[in-house]
Amino acid sequence: MSMLKLAIQNARSGMRNYLSLIISLAFTILILCNFINLVDSGILDQLGESNARNIEVILQILSFVIGCFMFFFIWYATNVFLTKCKKEIGIYVFMGLSNQEIGKLYATEILFIGSAALINGLLFGILTSQLFTMILMRLSTISVEIYFDVSVRSLLMTVLIFVFIYGIFVIKGYLDIVHSSVLEMIAANRQNEAVKQNRWLLAGKALSGVILISTGCYFAIKDAGMEVVGNLLLAVVLVVTGIYFIFGGLIPLLFQSLAHNKKFLYKKERNLWINSIIFRMKKNYRTYAIVCILMLCAITALAFGIAMKNRYDNIVHFENTYTYQIMSDQAGYHREFHNLIEKQNEVSYQSEAEITMLHEQYISEKFTVPIAIIAYTDVKNIAQTTGLPFNIKEPKDGEYVELNRLYLMSLTNESIGSTQEINGISYTSVDQTTAPYLGYMQEDMDYMIVNDSTYQQLKLLGTSVYMYNYKISDPSRFERSEADIRSSSHCLGLVKVDPERAEISWIKILFSVSVFMFMVFILASGSILFMKIYNDSFEEQARYHILSKLGIDDDVIKRSITYELLLTFVMPLLAMSCISYFSIKAIGELMQTTLPFVNVISLAVIYVCFFLFYLLSRFLYIGNVKKAVNSMYD
Amino acid sequence: MENKKILEIKNLVKDYGTKGFRTKVLRGVSLDIYENDFIAIMGPSGSGKTTLLNILSTIDHATSGTIRLNGKDITHLKNKELSKIRKDKIGFIFQDYNLLDTMTLQDNIALPLSLHGTANTNCIAKTKEMAALFGLSTHLKKYPYQLSGGQKQRGAACRALITAPEIIFADEPTGALDSKSSRDLLECLKHANEEGKATIMMVTHDAFSASFAKEVYLLNDGMIKCKLTKGKDRKEFYDRIIDVQASIGSDFV
For residue A576, which of A53, A295, A595, B240 is within the disulfide window of CB 3.0 to 4.6 Å? Predict the structure, then answer.
């Protein structure tokens, strides 16, 4: 048999084992291909230059992230493959094959698997490109004309990226085999010999893990706004290292302690599955840690996307509080403007207020946006007429309440307690609100709500403007009343809000992209765990064969497998669930929002996905073990 | 008073192969095993001794004939019922030990009891008792890879005996052991038979091992050729076994 035939035969027989690897790789290739293709396709040009450019940048960054992820995923998968192959190909040594020949055999075999993933990924990438764009745009609620367009450049780019990364690891594996000794290859076939680990070492690792994770979580949530970004890298490094220590220290220590307590251990199947977990732990803890980290990435990506979307929706809602905002120099024209609007449209609600823009010379610090003041009673009246919530206490003399805009991502911290000096008198911020009392006009200016008497005093230091706000029942007809309003001599300025305005609609793409990232990460983490368990099941065959010879029931074996696999899935899930609270809280702090709902929902999705992976793993695991049991009767 | 009959084997036949190309491995073996017996089955290679042991231990099925365990016919039971019999009534000692490498010797020995649902305090006490009996008390915390072949096999014997099964089947238990370890194990089995009233059926090709049994059956061409009963002296019994082996003349490996 030629080497090529042998490699083909090996790859074919191993195909089932590596199906999940091929599917995950193909899915990653599909996403990468579609991202690159979407940038190339020209579909985004319909969104206007600014939006298209922003989306392109996001997709390029994400393609880079997926590329990096692909790098680590292939690294991991080829390592698992290499270890398994080393065990099998150790046998070839005795058939007189040289290391180079075995290396070539490995490289050929793994190339087949890589090719299968690449071909499938590209094929499905091409087939689903239109669907992908459609789902992406639908999820993002962006309406563009979608057509089938696959660029050769995007395909070539995908192939190049994949082949480059894959090639590195094929060569690495080849060199690894060529330079390894015969003894090493045979030793790879041996079982893990040292089962229990030193308890003090484990305790040390466990303590380090807990300290690292706690510190990481503390840094993640300790500040809001800008500081979160500063602390984020440190928090990520600490948490990732901590997770490795938890799985390499705390969990083995916990199970070793359980196994040490024989009163606990000698209860039905516990003796089997607890020992089995301890046995696997030393070899598998890195896998559990990777799975946990990937799930955290998934949940964080999703939370970020949802938070951005929520914030975007709020901003849109904020901007659309009023359809028209008319500036005038005098009070008492609200009826006139109302009548002008009513010629073409129906007014739903309206409000009016006097605002005073302070002259710069009276303000101690220079600000990028002008400062305006508004009287407390005016704001209260606006809330009453518009139905907006109002729970602000009237500020005392020397105090003010900040009336802010909604930021997509605020990099400033809470400013309650800060002071503002106007004309030599200091005013302290006692509260802040982002309720859109002044609608779009709140976007470009910082407002201070002061009590009525203070307002009357400060009014003299600036220019007063009267603002008449109207919301019409059908905002899409906003252009119809424009001419009528402008016809009034009292209209000094008009802001009209287009409900379809899409200046920042590119943000919406972040949400759908984060959903895809979430899927990629979850699929990858589930596949990694699945691959590990599936490989382990072959090793377990011999043990279950022994148990069967001893007369241990199928039911007992199944129960033991169920507990073992359940814990294998639950351990990273639990660790991830605890840490996810902090990662999502950090995102919440960054976005200055609360995301517990996102946390619960994304956890629920992950739990459902993992339950399916668990069922599949259990099914195949028991199937494999049964083969060993049944072989006894053959 | 005669001891209780544990195993009753009548006309056991086992064929292998397809129609027209059948090979008879067992050609009508009949044998009774009583409580507290220690029987060795010897025979040249291909005589059918392992096949007989596999059938008796319910791992293989006979072509015809009956096996009664405690009076109950177990020849046609389903796999699930056979598993239950193996778990509740039979103990095994295999040539290659078959200890689970995932757990300590103590956990290996306790495994059948704990799976049986025995109270944990009993499991612990019984494990320690068995380990003391087989000289393994200082090795309980070790994993199989840390034990010598003899220690592993004694551990396997402890595991087989811990549930106090009706009968122990030992398949070439000394096959992979050096002479010192073999003697230690056989002494332990003898002790378990004499003091612990265990019933043991051992398959071996080794006359030395067989001489520890009370009775030796010599199997050839799928049939029992003769039965030897031990006198007072093991050495004399060993010589007799060697003589019979020589008279049969086949290759006893």
Answer: A295
Q: Tokens standing for A546?
A: 């022994």
Contact A549 B59 (CB under 8 A): yes
Q: N- to C-terminal Cα distance for chain B? A: 38
The closest CB to that of B112, out of A193, A550, A633, belongs to: A550
Closest chain A residue to B100, measured at CA: A543
Question: A176: distance to nearest CA of chain B, Å?
Answer: 28
User: Residue A89 has which token pair?
Assistant: 């190909």
Of B83, B86, B103, the CB nearest to A271: B103
CA atoms within 13 A on the CB side of A64: 6
* CA B38, chain centre distance (Å): 9
Closest CB to B100: pick one of A196, A265, A546. A546
Cβ distance A552 to B83 less than 8 Å, yes or no, reads: yes
B208-225: string of b/e by CB count within 10 Å (b at 16+)? bbbbbbbbbbbbbebbbe
Euclidean distance between CA atoms A423 and A528, whole angstroms: 65
Q: Which three-class secondary structure string do you get for A341-389?
A: HHCCCCEEEEEEEEEEEECHHHECCCCCCCEEEEEHHHHHHHHHHHCCC
Helix (H, G, I), strand (E, B) or coil at A74: helix
Which chain B residues are within 8 Å of A632, Cβ to Cβ? 59
Strands B38-42 and A399-403, sheet pairing: unpaired
Regarding an ipTM greater than 0.85, the answer is no
Q: Do B100 and A543 touch (CB under 8 A)?
A: yes
A549: chain B residues, CB-CB within 8 Å: 59, 86, 92, 94, 98
Chain A residues within an 8 Å CB radius of B121: 263
Element containing residue A465 per DSSP (H, E)? strand A462-472
- Whether the CB-CB separation of A338 and A488 falls below 8 Å is answered with no
Q: If we measure between CA atoms, which residue out of B48, B1, B38 comes closest to residue B237?
A: B38
Q: CB–CB of B128/B137 below 8 Å? A: yes
Best of A549, A553, A564 to mutate (most B CBs within 10 Å, chain B)? A549
The predicted-structure confidence for B177-214, as pLDDT tens digits, reads as follows: 888 888 888 888 888 888 878 899 999 888 888 899 98
Strand pairing partners for B226?
B218
Per-residue pLDDT reduced to its tens digit, A213-253: 999 988 888 766 556 667 778 888 899 899 999 999 999 99
CA distances from A201 to A107, A196, A198, A205 (A): 38, 11, 5, 6
Contacts of residue B10, defined as CB under 8 A and 6 or more positions apart, other chains included, come to B30, B65, B66, B67, B68
Cβ–Cβ below 8 Å for A551 and B83: yes
Quote the pTM value.
0.76
In sequence order, the β-bridge partners of residue A402 are A432, A448
Reported confidence tier of residue A589, pLDDT bands at 50, 70, 90: confident
Q: How far apart are CA A613 and CA A621, in angstroms?
A: 12
Which residues, 6+ apart, have CB-to-CB distance to A568 below 8 Å?
A277, A280, A284, A288, A529, A533
Residue B145 φ/ψ, nearest 5 degrees: -70, -15
The token duo for A249 is 């220290």
The shortest C-alpha distance from A410 to chain B (Å) reads 54
Residues of A in contact with B113 (CB under 8 A): 266
Residue with tokens 């029992």: B224
CA B60 to chain A, closest CA, distance in angstroms equals 6
